[in-house]
Each structure stands twice: as structure tokens, then as C-alpha cells.
Design goal:
This protein is an alpha/beta fold and about 240 residues long. It has a domain of about 160 residues: Acetylglutamate kinase-like (Carbamate kinase, 3-Layer(aba) Sandwich). Helix content is about 40%, strand content about 20%. Helix 5 packs parallel to helix 7.
């Protein structure tokens, strides 16, 4: 395997499937199956998932929540719900998991402890990191990169609905073309919609590559971890 330890970032919206909100059982099952294929190779997997299918702090500000910090904490709780759904799906496939939350919730998760997380990974358990960084004003993209650095992941794999980074939104512009590789500097200069700038800066400073790929395509996650460089777009130095 090209990558021995990876951090998979999923958006909360990816769990909606064809729904307008909430969690689609078929979508969760698909992602659990894709993770199982990689786990069966012996690769170590950490996962961070967003909460946008349930609640998004930024959007809540438009809906009447006056306090940004309060709204962001509500969004963090949404990520815990998604993490629990994914954990349940993974365990239905016989995968050992651990759920670690940046906000203490002893009845349903472990607190995030870096050394414990690494030990779980070494024992072959899939570790799901919930509640973002535990701090308002930080996105789950930043949380994903932070956790990846803390556990010593080889790469951040961002699973999306499209097969990489394009010159424009391919769902709106049929003339958009896909990049095979881009640098962190090009992400800044061209304002590419990869991750927020805090996450990109963390990756650049720690020389942590990002691969953006279509998680809905069967075996794409497995093929990337196996070393297929034709899938997705690589962001690196």
C-alpha cells in the first residue's frame, strides 16, 4: 500500500444521499463498505465527518442564532450524530471502531487523546474524530488536517461528489477541466475551492498532501490508498 495511515474527510452533505437533509441509510452503508475495503488491507484509517446535513453554524447565523460561537457548537454536535451513524454502519461490517470527540461525552465517545488514538490505529481500529476541533470558528476541514498531523497520517483524502479539483464547478460548467496536481500556492492564487485557507496553510506548513476524489465511485478510496495516481487531484508542495 502506498499510504499506511490516512485521514479520510467526509462532508456531512455526503450522508444525505438524494435527500434534502438528514442521513440516508444507503449512503452511509456505501461509505462504510468503501472504508472496509481499505481496512481489510491493513491500512490505518482515521475519519473526520462534517455536520452540514443536520446543522451548519454559518447558515444558522442567517436563521436567527445571534451568537456565532453558540452556532458553531451546535454544528459540532451535528458531527457527533453523523459520526455515530457511520460508526454503527462500520461495525455492522465487522470493523472495530473507536469514536473520539473533542467535546467530552463520556456515555457515547472517548475524549480525544492523541496517544490513545494512535494506539487504536496501530491495533487496526478505525478511529472517527467528532466535534471538530472543539473550538468555534474552525471548520471540520481544519479539524481533519489537525487530526491528520497529530496522528502522523501520510495524506488527507477528501471524499467529495466530484472526481477532483476543477477550473470551475463541473456540475454547473461543462467546460471545466480537472487538475491532476496543484500546489498549495496555486490553491491560494487561483482561490480554488479545496478546503478553507486555515486547513491549506496547516497542510503547507507540515508538508501534508491532500487528495480530492469522488468517494461515490466504487473502489476509489481503495485505489488511491493502493497508489493509483490517476484518481483525484493531488495538492502538495
Amino acid at each position: 500500500m502506498k499510504y499506511q495511515r490516512v485521514l479520510l474527510k467526509l462532508s456531512g452533505e455526503s450522508l444525505m444521499g438524494n435527500k434534502q437533509f438528514g442521513i440516508d441509510a444507503d449512503a452511509v452503508t456505501h461509505y462504510a463498505n468503501e472504508v472496509k475495503k481499505v481496512a481489510d488491507t491493513g491500512a490505518q484509517i482515521g475519519i473526520v465527518i462534517g455536520g452540514g446535513n443536520i446543522f451548519r453554524g454559518i447558515d444558522a447565523m442567517k436563521g436567527g442564532v445571534q451568537d456565532r460561537a453558540q452556532a458553531d457548537y451546535m454544528g459540532m454536535l451535528a458531527t457527533v450524530i453523523n459520526a455515530m451513524a457511520l460508526q454503527s454502519a462500520l461495525e455492522s461490517f465487522g470493523i472495530q471502531t473507536r469514536l473520539q470527540s473533542a467535546i467530552k461525552m463520556e456515555q457515547i465517545s472517548e475524549p480525544f487523546i492523541r496517544r490513545r488514538a494512535i494506539r487504536h490505529l496501530e491495533k487496526g481500529r478505525v478511529v472517527i474524530f467528532a466535534a471538530g476541533t472543539g473550538n468555534p470558528y474552525f471548520t471540520t476541514d481544519t479539524a481533519a488536517v489537525l487530526r491528520a498531523i497529530e496522528i502522523g497520517a501520510d495524506v488527507v483524502l477528501k471524499g467529495t461528489r466530484v472526481d477532483g479539483i476543477y477550473t470551475a464547478d463541473p456540475e454547473k460548467d461543462p467546460t471545466a477541466t480537472r487538475y491532476d496536481k496543484v500546489s498549495y500556492s496555486e490553491v491560494y492564487e487561483m482561490n480554488l475551492n479545496v478546503m478553507d485557507m486555515t486547513a491549506i496553510t496547516l497542510c503547507k506548513e507540515n508538508n501534508l498532501p491532500i487528495i480530492v476524489f469522488d468517494i461515490n465511485q466504487d473502489n476509489s478510496f481503495l485505489n488511491i490508498v493502493s497508489g493509483d495516481e490517476q484518481i483525484g487531484t493531488l495538492v502538495s508542495n
